[in-house]
Write a structure and sequence with these properties.
Layout (H helix, E strand, L loop, with lengths): L22 E5 L15 E11 L2 E8 L5 E6 L4 E6 L2 E3 L6 E3 L5 E10 L2 E8 L4 E7 L4 E7 L16 E6 L16 H17 L5 E4 L9 H10 L4 E8 L9 E6 L5 H10 L4 H10 L1 H13 L2 H23 L5 E7 L11 E8 L3 H7 L2 H20 L3 H9 L7
Parallel strand pairs: 1-10, 2-6, 12-13, 12-14, 14-17, 15-16
Antiparallel strand pairs: 2-3, 3-11, 4-5, 5-9, 7-8, 8-9, 10-11, 15-17
Helix pairs in contact: 1-8, 3-4, 6-8, 6-9
Bound molecules: zinc ion (ZN).
Zinc ion binds next to loops.
């Protein structure tokens, strides 16, 4: 136990008073074999980070491998703590993170005993928290909500100002790679930059990108960025891939449960886990995911995401359809994308063509095709933001899942 981390002895005895109702636990984790015990084999806590905004703070603990943990909330003073099993803290890191945002006072981490690192969140005032471990990246993610939650859900369509565009992948992660060597990360960055250029002409919008160059950004940091900027919309841009070379077309996703094999496959790929693992986790943690989704419904975020998805999807399909033959409308779909977990604003993920299809890869390599896609995404966002009455009709037209053009 490290004195400098400021732990109190009563933390040890407080394991019985966990507030089950106030947290939703999403275990997208690997349970590691507990046989290892030498200090070299322990999971290392590599970094502590936080993103803060009005009513919301995300804390991310970077790890050398996914970890098993227990959680607790105790009073006097009010704090949450997480005991990470079979772990040790890196000597390199800063163990106390001052936050002071009205939700959290500080985040602390320390070697609690030989095999346990304890992460403590000193609370100011919170409504609820959610904690999950992501499979693809070794991270413990703790989302903490203050009391302002769910404010501002009225008239979302009329209050769009800050828009976060999220070009997928980057850096060491190329995303999907086409048969002729085209990288998803390059295509989606170019499209996102073009969307920014187009939307920036409208002075009422503030356009932010999760990345504007070829760098890797972990999935949890993308949503955290959007939340911390109090963004009104989040649009993740990707290109699709399939083992079937003939697969082609445009589809737009929102975060929701699905039984559709193809949608699960797309989410697994974007989440950087195997299809098998994805299905195992969906089965194992169905009730936790259901709780998160009912949160979304309660906050109206899902209805707004459906609307946004329909405008974006409809706009891409109609714009490309006016300029190219045989553009296939795969419709608006549901799947569990990590990058949309915890987003506090209407959020969608667009798959703007199949890079695995040689003909669509060829189109994606053309400046003009990417320009059309960017213009279409910008138009879809603009239509959503302007809340024009004719949009209702358009939404109805495109709402059917898997609609063929
Ligand atoms: Zn992708």
């Amino acid at each position: 136990m490290r004195e400098d981390a400021g732990y109190r002895m009563q933390d040890i005895h407080a394991s019985c008073i966990l507030h089950h109702t106030s947290c939703i636990l999403l275990f997208f984790l690997i349970i590691l074999s507990p046989v290892i015990s030498s200090s070299e084999d322990r999971i290392e806590v590599l970094d502590l980070k936080h993103w803060t905004s009005k009513g919301y703070t995300r804390v991310v603990v970077d790890l050398s491998a996914p970890v098993e943990f227990s959680k607790n909330r105790i009073a006097n003073p009010d704090r949450l703590y997480f005991d990470l099993k079979n772990s040790r803290i890196s000597k390199e890191i800063k163990t106390t993170l001052p936050v002071g945002d009205g939700i959290l006072k500080t985040v602390r981490a320390g070697q609690f005993n030989q095999d346990t690192v304890r992460v403590v969140l000193d609370l100011e005032e919170i409504k609820e928290f959610k904690v999950f471990v992501l499979e693809d990246t070794a991270k413990l993610v703790i989302d903490v909500y203050g009391h302002e939650k769910a404010a501002n859900t009225h008239d979302l369509a009329y209050a769009v100002k800050t828009i976060v565009l999220d070009p997928g992948h980057g850096g060491h992660d190329p995303g999907a790679v086409g048969p002729n060597g085209l990288y998803e990360k390059d295509i989606v960055l170019d499209v996102a930059l073009k969307v920014r250029t187009i939307l920036s002409k409208n002075k009422k919008f503030k356009i932010l990108l999760t990345r504007d160059k070829d760098v890797f950004i972990p999935l949890v940091e993308r949503t955290a960025f959007a939340n911390s900027k109090n963004a009104d919309l989040f649009i993740s841009i990707h290109v699709n891939a399939s083992p079937k070379k003939t697969a082609r077309g445009i589809e737009t996703y929102l975060l929701n449960w699905t039984n559709d094999e193809e949608s699960i496959r797309v989410a697994a790929r974007e989440n950087a886990i195997s299809l098998k693992k994805m299905k195992e986790q969906m089965k194992k943690y169905k009730s936790d995911v259901d709780m998160m989704l009912s949160d979304l419904r309660r906050d109206l975020k899902r209805d707004e995401s459906i609307k946004l998805a329909n405008y974006v999807q409809g706009s891409i399909v109609s714009t490309l359809g006016e300029n190219y033959n045989d553009i296939k409308n795969l419709g608006v779909k549901n799947a569990l994308f990590y990058v949309l977990f915890g987003a506090r604003m209407p959020s969608v993920l667009a798959e703007v063509s199949f890079i695995s299809n040689p003909a669509e890869e060829n189109l994606l390599s053309k400046e003009s095709y990417r320009e059309y896609i960017a213009q279409a995404i910008a138009d879809g966002i603009d239509t959503y933001a302007s809340g024009a009455p004719q949009m209702q009709k358009m939404a109805g037209r495109h709402i059917s899942v898997g609609a063929e053009k």
